[in-house]
Write a structure and sequence with these properties.
Distance between the termini: 44 Å
Radius of gyration: 16 Å
Number of domains: 1
CATH architecture: 3-Layer(aba) Sandwich
CATH superfamily: Type I PLP-dependent aspartate aminotransferase-like (Major domain)
Shape: globular
CATH class: Alpha Beta
Largest sheet: 5 strands, mixed
Order of helices and strands: HEHEHEEEEEHH
Number of helices: 5
Length: 198
């Protein structure tokens, strides 16, 4: 499997948002998860109006967490970390330096690929490590994993070349069009759901 098209898509997304690097993954939630693991994050706070998978990450990763009341727009910060849920962000040169901003290409998002996400970063070291973490700990090349010396705990969270190709095809039109303006009220109050009352 050749990842050249994935690398090309990453470069174009990084260029649009103004980050040095981008790491393609299979969804925004997994982008956030990889960043939390990479940064060894122990605590997050989450707006009570957001997508349900974000607070559920605290259970999956055994993080301390709490709700916060925030009328956020475009993105929000996970506690005091440098990790941002930017799933609905679509704005040229909007990357915040020294952060990990996680994007979504889910079917309702401005760049609709059905599924997919991206991590924006300005750290070359983080980029290299996050690529390996997203691809089962493997180097992203054409060499079989069975002959690689895997030295990183990895996850099966990579973006396929087929999804990246679709991204490259749809990107020019997405850049031309104005995005939908999401507001925090577009999400339900998660505190009312039974899963969070336990």
């Amino acid at each position: 499997m050749s990842f050249e098209v994935v690398s090309e898509f990453e470069k174009k997304i990084a260029n649009f948002f103004g980050s040095k690097y981008a790491v393609a993954v299979d969804c925004c939630t997994h982008a956030l998860e990889l960043c939390l693991i990479y940064n060894k994050t122990k605590y997050i706070s989450v707006p009570h109006r957001t997508y349900i998978s974000v607070p559920l990450l605290s259970h999956k990763l055994n993080l301390e967490w709490e709700w916060k009341t925030e009328e956020w727009e475009d993105y929000y910060q996970l506690g005091e970390s440098n990790i941002y849920d930017a799933a609905v962000l679509w704005k040229k040169n909007s990357y915040l330096p020294d952060t990990f901003m996680c994007l979504s290409f889910q079917f309702r998002k401005h760049l609709n690929l059905g599924r997919g996400g991206m991590i924006l970063t300005d750290s070359k070291i983080a980029k290299k490590q996050l690529i390996k973490m997203a691809y089962d700990g493997r180097e992203r090349n054409d060499i079989s994993w069975s002959v690689q010396n895997i030295n990183t705990i990895g996850y099966h969270y990579y973006m396929t070349p087929e999804t990246a190709r679709k991204g490259l095809e749809r990107l020019p039109e997405a850049i031309k069009k104005n995005p939908k303006k999401w507001v925090h009220g577009d999400w339900p109050d998660l505190r009312k759901m039974d899963i969070f009352k336990k």
